Amino acid sequence: MLNCQNVTRLYSESQERPLTLQERMSVKMHVMMCSGCRNFGEQMHILRQAARTYVQGADGHADKT
Amino acid sequence: MSNAEAKPSITDISASVHTSLLADTEFLNNLQRQMHKFATLQLADAHLAEDAVQEALIGALKNAGAFGGRSALKTWVFAILKNKIVDILRQKQRMVEVSALMHEDEEEDEDFSELFDKKGYWQADERPAAWGNPEASLREGQFWRVFEACLENLPGHQARVFMMREFIELDSHEICTAVGITVSNLNVMLHRSRIRLRKCLESHWFVKGESLC
């Protein structure tokens, strides 16, 4: 059974390589019961989204006027 | 552009193009400063960064009349800069400095164990909270100032490799060659950068909510 520390590593690794079926199932089972890790997983997507819209965000919203 | 060659200033670059946008020297100077800061972070070489910024600016300002406003110009000029940085990094891959390999061991003992208890579960006050509506935050100017501050506070090469991976979208092997580290070390650095960025954004921007693990 995975713990939270393992799950955070797998979330991070999933951005670099496809997780195996077993890893994906283990993470899925864990986050069903752990809102902390569920939030962590969602936030990894937000970080990526923020980085990819960095330039537009950093200036666009100040300059729209 | 060689180092011996005189580099044009923003005023020189924009002097031949008369648009209201280019008349705004404060905006252009600010843009150049931001570009230089970003290029220096990625290239770890002020001279190469200066060259990349100048070439990107010259390329973008040739078509400055086509832009409707500051945002469009800035997005365009950063897109050019991003490509310049990729070109330079790929050229540098053929001559990686051995000294770069020295960074590989930085903060080797950092494992964020303080975030977890002995069984590897979140400590109560470290558990990630729900962020509400994070997409809305991405549309707020203040969020980006916090994001940038969090990025700047990352230690060592973490900010550099994080943005290489997520903004410039280089693959792992290209980043490893550019920075002079192994793939496994890169994965550790990326993991640390994400953990730190997440925690920093939560502490300084997102309001903590209730969550149970």
Automatic annotation (TrEMBL), chain B:
<feature type="domain" description="RNA polymerase sigma-70 region 2">
    <location>
        <begin position="31"/>
        <end position="94"/>
    </location>
</feature>
<keyword id="KW-0238">DNA-binding</keyword>
<dbReference type="InterPro" id="IPR007627">
    <property type="entry name" value="RNA_pol_sigma70_r2"/>
</dbReference>
<dbReference type="Pfam" id="PF08281">
    <property type="entry name" value="Sigma70_r4_2"/>
</dbReference>
<dbReference type="InterPro" id="IPR036388">
    <property type="entry name" value="WH-like_DNA-bd_sf"/>
</dbReference>
<dbReference type="InterPro" id="IPR014289">
    <property type="entry name" value="RNA_pol_sigma-24-rel"/>
</dbReference>
<dbReference type="InterPro" id="IPR013325">
    <property type="entry name" value="RNA_pol_sigma_r2"/>
</dbReference>
<feature type="domain" description="RNA polymerase sigma factor 70 region 4 type 2">
    <location>
        <begin position="147"/>
        <end position="197"/>
    </location>
</feature>
<keyword id="KW-0805">Transcription regulation</keyword>
<dbReference type="InterPro" id="IPR014284">
    <property type="entry name" value="RNA_pol_sigma-70_dom"/>
</dbReference>
<dbReference type="Pfam" id="PF04542">
    <property type="entry name" value="Sigma70_r2"/>
</dbReference>
<keyword id="KW-0731">Sigma factor</keyword>
<comment type="similarity">
    <text>Belongs to the sigma-70 factor family. ECF subfamily.</text>
</comment>
<dbReference type="InterPro" id="IPR013324">
    <property type="entry name" value="RNA_pol_sigma_r3/r4-like"/>
</dbReference>
<dbReference type="InterPro" id="IPR013249">
    <property type="entry name" value="RNA_pol_sigma70_r4_t2"/>
</dbReference>
<keyword id="KW-0804">Transcription</keyword>
<dbReference type="InterPro" id="IPR039425">
    <property type="entry name" value="RNA_pol_sigma-70-like"/>
</dbReference>
<protein>
    <submittedName>
        <fullName>RNA polymerase factor sigma-70</fullName>
    </submittedName>
</protein>
